Amino acid sequence: MPSIVAVILNWNGAQDTVDCLESLRRQLLGALRVVVVDNGSQDDSLARIDQWASEHQGEVAFTSYDRATAEAGGREAVELALSKQDAKIQLVVVEARENLGFAAGSNVGVRYTTKVGAEFVLLLNNDTVLAPDSVARLAGFLAEHPDYVAATGQIRYFGRPVIWNCGGDLTWFGSRRYLFSEQPVDATPQDGWRRITFITGCAALIRTSVFARLGLLTERFFFGEEDYEFSLRLKRAQLQVACCFGAVIQHKVGSSIDRAAPPATLGRYYIYYLNRFIDMKDYYPGPIWWFWRLLSLSLVLPRLKLSRGLSWSGLALLGHRLIRDSTRLQGVSKERFETATRSGLDSL
Description:
11-stranded mixed sheet; two-stranded antiparallel sheet; alpha/beta
């Protein structure tokens, strides 16, 4: 059985996914099982991934499943043959045939990972590129620290010597404080580790036993929030998480959401804050949650005015929709995500 299974979600991101796969092929460790869950892509993603695997015959063993077969752990004969292949990458492509969203799509890969008995699952955004020793460093840390259940690395902006984050810490105010965010690489530790309480789903090595204990990534939110909510559960269960500074990952920040909603789209901010408002409903007592939302909006709306130049009328609509919808909803569906990001808040 594989020790580590990397899970990558792809949706219309052929080049990013191939770049990520190539960085995994160059990892300095033994055979690595990689699951690419394709969320019903409409580009040439499947053909491009197949082409990449063909170009590296001998180093890449390839098979594919539908969603149901993958979630059941694949086919026994195929899995046995795959594990016997002398290949650096044992690639499994799962065709979901629909856009399940990030958490639900990733959970297809997590279910596969638990069924095949792997010790660790490596969650990766498809727009990440890993340094050759990154996976070995993360796995080595967890092997040496059995009291820790997950680890992330030093995540840099792709092609820039600037830190996106090194994980971070959850705050009492329903937010996260990124570690070394926007700092130059030279000002960031390049070795050692630090305990954190927030771990990003962009790049995280997690013991599969955690999912058996706490459950999978929440599927209440079609896009976003799953890593924040998972971090809240880890903290509530008093499970320890770390950042390993020597494990370097580069991230093309925003590739997935930018394909669905440009940065200036009001619906993009509606989805982000609606996710958080609904999520925190489960963690604050009712009266405190109501006060916290109003206080949050008093800070968020002026900041969006200054940083994004949004109109006051648009911001007033955003605030109204956030209060109304976070009160009555328990999650954010695919339909609401698509309506907000494509048609605008007036359509909700």
